[in-house]
């Protein structure tokens, strides 16, 4: 790859990364092309060298935002080798994650948009949901695969829902309570042993 091609690829990647962060912070309707290009240190006129349209950029940036979280989820599950699911829950339902949506899980900010979005966005969202379910299932360590899949679905739904609500409420104490309560209940489920029938 020549120098100009490498520079073009680098500029394109920079715009995509900025757009992915802004999507996680603001959703897909807010970041304008001019703002994104300015933040990347590029001219608005150079936009079409990299993307065919704003929709093209937003679609690619949304897919990147969704995929970015996968490594963080895997790292969170590895933090506690004895109880990887608890480590994942604690990392996801943390004040740090809540307070940094620009680097957080895009499932939270893109859920409603994906539900109304085009097929490509829905597919990217679904792909990430399936990968997270797999990570959560693996972190559960064994057991019946059908039960593990169902538990992973409940866990992921609770994680995403609690994070969304904790960011949306006005009272910081109530927000903290939501995170702590849902985390506690999810971790309690790990220790719950079903009664004999």
Automatic annotation (TrEMBL):
<keyword id="KW-0805">Transcription regulation</keyword>
<feature type="domain" description="HTH tetR-type">
    <location>
        <begin position="9"/>
        <end position="69"/>
    </location>
</feature>
<keyword id="KW-0804">Transcription</keyword>
<dbReference type="Pfam" id="PF00440">
    <property type="entry name" value="TetR_N"/>
</dbReference>
<dbReference type="InterPro" id="IPR009057">
    <property type="entry name" value="Homeodomain-like_sf"/>
</dbReference>
<dbReference type="InterPro" id="IPR036271">
    <property type="entry name" value="Tet_transcr_reg_TetR-rel_C_sf"/>
</dbReference>
<dbReference type="InterPro" id="IPR001647">
    <property type="entry name" value="HTH_TetR"/>
</dbReference>
<feature type="DNA-binding region" description="H-T-H motif">
    <location>
        <begin position="32"/>
        <end position="51"/>
    </location>
</feature>
<protein>
    <submittedName>
        <fullName>Transcriptional regulator, TetR family</fullName>
    </submittedName>
</protein>
<keyword id="KW-0238">DNA-binding</keyword>
<dbReference type="GO" id="GO:0003677">
    <property type="term" value="F:DNA binding"/>
</dbReference>
